[in-house]
Queue: 3 jobs
Job 1
Amino acid sequence: MFFVVGRLWAKGRCGVDSIGFILPSCFGAWFFSAMAEWSWARHNVSMYQIHCAWPPELFMFVGCGLFAFAFVVIAHVYHGYKDGILFGRLIEFALSVCVFALPIASSPFFHFHHWFAAWLLGMHINQKYWWSYVVMALCFGVYINGIAGYGRDSMLGCKSAYYNSQQQQCGHLAGDVDNTQFCFFEELPTGHNNVSLAPDAGIVEGNGTAASNETSTVPENNMFMGFGEAVPLDWRNCSATGGH
């Protein structure tokens, strides 16, 4: 998508093997890993995290980033209009958003991963000017950072984990170890989010309760365990049970 929609194939464009592309890409990949050293930056982009967990420092950092990004958008709109390509590029961007983002954006489980943001925006920052090329390369580096660290993780987070576990008849579905920010599932046999494996465990019935003994583990043979739906975090009042 970066190559096709990003028009890296166009005549006169520098290739991805040029120093002007490699350096911004490396910086983008390094920077997002370096951010993990800042305790105030260890948060994700979701309604719950923004409303309930983001510290003031992160709001200031994101505000500065959005301010800089606004200049990039304005520059692209100006030069796109000047070069007579603005309408076509807006159509391309709108179609990408409608196909890849809108179908899932309304879900309470929606998590705007940085790999997805860099992929979606980066391929549309594709004008012929050097500054546009540098920003695209920066986005490409952020995208590489995301998929190298986590893979193309689902935008639906816990909901996707629940669906995949059900469909593939998984033997257990463990939530976040300390129940602080990720998944919470109803009716787990332990009464909380952590499930372990043990050879002497009793078989768990479909309602999530232990059948033969009152144990909090799952059989060694990885038999399918029933559990309730994934529970979205309530960002409106920051009162999600067991998952905040």
Note: The CA atoms of residues 61 and 93 lie 26 Å apart.
Job 2
Amino acid sequence: MSEHDIKKDTWIKELVTKQQRNNLVQGLDRLCEVLYQTDQSWEVKLNQCLSENQRDLLIKLLQEQEIKFDDLNSIEKALIQMKIYALNLPILTLYLAIDLPIKHLFGIANWFEFNIGERVLLDICVDELLLGGAVIYYQGVRRDFSLRSKYMYYMNQGLIDIDTLLN
């Protein structure tokens, strides 16, 4: 296997959440354990160790690195490289008022990658008290863009009166 920049591979674009990363790493660990066992075919091992989406990610990586499915040493190196890269992706914790579908999370992850210049994994937490918007934690910095914080700010400034809201 030649030197390869895994950051440029398309498989990484499919990894959006911290939970997806954790599930992938567990599957890769299981696959590494059975990789050299000869009692099962490569396809059986893949099906037993990885979900369909994870299999697709791995196959993309192997194809991009031009690794043949019978080259177990190169596959093992790719699995380890994939695991290390996934484990080292930065985590962005995102508190939302609602649980978003995965297609929206793809959009959010791509927005962050475009705007901060690196791929991040989203750790999504639902907090209905936010009312709307989001609270973001990234690299030790907290930014509150929630409706609740805006509401509290205006309340504290005396710009909103609770009686006005109730009537």
Note: The beta strands are 91-96, 121-126, 134-138, 141-144.
Job 3
Amino acid sequence: MNIKNDTTKSNPMNANISSKPAVISTSRLRDILTEVRGAQILAFTALTVPEQKITPFGQVQKLTRVNAVTGARYANAMSKHGESSSEERAWGERDASALVTKRNKDGTEAYYLPVQVNQTSRPLYLVKGPNGRLTAVPYTKVQAYLRPERKFAVAYKDYALKSLVTLAHEGRRYRIRSTST
């Protein structure tokens, strides 16, 4: 029996997904997201810093794979769940359906990807090891230092573009090179 390793040939459902991710900067990612119109499904990996107390490990970071819809509107999503929301966005300015710009007091801009989260992977918690590299630690070791996750009827979050590590959108995969954006 001959087993194929090329999933795009053996599984027609994967035919539109590129096999090797393109490496892009956060500036290029911002350009891509500016072109998104309407609600669209995407998947990404984000490396974030959860709210935390001072830990013996230093800063704890969280690596999570997220499946989400961009272009979703918070107020609309809340009304579908029987909850009201008088204001869609308390900060930032929506530049496109998949991009929000926050203008800081010092004149700089920060860019965010607003999404309605459909599903997340079990997060991987990371701390800097003695060699300066990130090392995985069990959740049980950092749990006491992290703020408990809040549960919402609709999980609507804004991810800083600088926190994105990978993105899959419209059949293309990207690996994001960290820049100051």
Note: The helical segments are 7-10, 26-34, 74-80, 139-142.
